[in-house]
Design a protein that fits this description.
mainly alpha, two-stranded antiparallel ribbon, 4% strand, globular
């Protein structure tokens, strides 16, 4: 890797990355604005009319050791490896939510479940943001907002719907194995667009993860009468969810160090909810999907899963990517596979096969190797 500084070198181009740890007292999840341009074709700093008001001046922070935009050092600056901590707590919360969503998914279709959780979570993020007294970052352009909304469309509307489709077809334990396929695309995209380097150990990790996914696709059915096509489609939906999520992260990674986490999340959620509402009329049997929500028995699991998985876990997830490198955060996020597998067997009583255990071991080993290779 090119280090954990403010950027990494790609030829003569400086690609901005998220600062390690920095925040303001007003919002512990907010980072200062910098003057770096978003690395997109035809874009330069100040090339568009900003939606904000002013730029910040430079000051010195004892925790950073160099000039930064004006800010007050937060107690969070003194917490070692805060990004890694966030990136590890997020999958713990998400694993619990997966179990709840698996139960809810038995009666609520994927798109309806995704739209419901987003409509519940979006106001929570907005209220939290304003309760902290935070303000929008300076000099935000319209293209920045479009980028965030597009990230939400891919990462929330598309990826989460595909995830629920995978979960319904494979179950929580096998879905956990397929979900290890999240790291390879995000690391490969980080290499292509963020200037991070792919080491030989990471290549080995990618191969192990691919082997893990293949074990799920070829696994003998644990349930009598389960169609092979259903299992294979579940694997494809899971891979599609991983790829869509990876793209949604990498496309905003260069700006994550400059924007508040909650502010980013609100705009991404807006994109996710808006896209789901636009797609809703095109969904076959849309009215039947809504009718499933009329059953009050499903609401406790839907609301609990939303609070834990969409609200708490997503905040931690965004914080992890904000305060550490994308490759490191994505690797730590993959511990969700282990937590989910254990909870699925323990709580849902899903069957455990040798092939499933082999796939889980290969996937986790691949994730560990990729994480070591990114250090």
């Amino acid at each position: 890797m090119c280090g954990r500084g403010a950027g990494s070198c790609v030829g003569s181009t400086l690609v901005p990355q998220a600062p390690r740890r920095s925040a303001t007292l007003a919002d512990p999840l907010q980072l200062p604005r910098t003057t770096m341009a978003l690395m997109l074709p035809g874009r330069t700093a100040g090339s568009e009319r900003p939606l904000g008001l002013s730029r910040t001046k430079s000051s010195h922070c004892p925790h950073r050791g160099h000039a930064t935009p004006t800010r007050v050092c937060s107690p969070m600056d003194s917490v070692p490896h805060i990004g890694e901590i966030f990136a590890l707590l997020s999958p713990m919360a998400w694993a619990v939510a997966v179990i709840l969503f698996r139960v809810a998914g038995r009666s609520v279709p994927p798109l309806a479940l995704n739209l419901t959780k987003n409509c519940v979570a979006w106001p929570l993020f907005a209220l939290t943001y304003y309760a902290l007294g935070a303000s929008a970052p300076d000099t935000v352009t319209r293209s920045d907002l479009i980028l965030l909304i597009a990230s939400g469309v891919l990462g929330i509307a598309v990826a989460d719907t595909l995830f629920f489709m995978c979960l319904n077809r494979l179950g929580a334990s096998r879905q956990a194995i397929v979900n290890t396929a999240y790291s390879p695309p995000i690391i490969l995209l980080s290499v292509l667009f963020l200037g991070e380097r792919l080491s030989a150990t990471q290549v080995v990790g990618v191969c192990l993860i691919l082997m893990a996914v293949l074990t799920v696709g070829r696994e003998s059915s644990g349930t009598p009468g389960e169609a092979r096509g259903k299992r294979l489609s579940g694997v494809l939906f899971g891979i599609g969810a991983c790829v869509a999520q990876a793209i949604s992260v990498v496309m905003i990674k260069p700006r994550m160090g400059e924007w508040p986490v909650l502010w980013m999340t609100c705009w991404r959620m807006a994109g996710g909810v808006g896209a789901a509402l636009l797609l809703w009329p095109l969904v076959p049997k849309a009215q039947r999907n809504l009718a499933a929500l009329a059953d009050r028995k499903c609401w406790p699991t839907v609301l609990a899963g939303t609070l834990i998985g969409t609200y708490v876990s997503l905040l931690l997830w965004m914080g992890g990517f904000k305060y550490t490198q994308a490759s490191v955060a994505s690797a730590l996020n993959q511990t969700a596979s282990l937590f989910t597998f254990i909870l699925a067997v323990w709580i849902l009583r899903e069957p455990v096969t040798r092939r499933a255990l082999t796939g889980l071991a290969l996937g986790l080993l691949g994730v560990i190797i990729m994480g070591v290779g990114s250090i």
